[in-house]
Amino acid sequence: MNWPRVALGRRTRAGYEGRMNKHEFIGRNGEARLRYLDSDFQVLVPGAYVTCSVTGRHIMLSDLRYWSVDRQEAYADAAASLKRELSLRRGK
Fold this sequence. Notes:
- By secondary structure, the chain is α+β, with helices and mostly antiparallel strands.
- It has a domain at 33-90.
- 14% of the residues lie in helices and 23% in strands.
- The protein has one helix spanning 78-90, and strands spanning 33-36, 41-45, 49-51, 58-60, 66-68, 73-75.
- It has a two-stranded antiparallel ribbon with strand order 1-2. Strands 3-4 form a two-stranded antiparallel ribbon.
């Protein structure tokens, strides 16, 4: 396979520049694993989408706007976020 070259300052083997190991592929189409931070997120495992914890819908990373830092969950939209919050409050 011909992996694309990525210009990240140093050149090693084609397609492996700047990544931790050879198993991290650029542009992977599967589900990403993220660490949700206060105003951003950190990609732990590259992918194209995450799954909404309320609706189960796939959320493209470019469209991800709602998540919980405390619960480390992603939400498809504000309504899903509110639904999750209300369901947890009723459970207490």
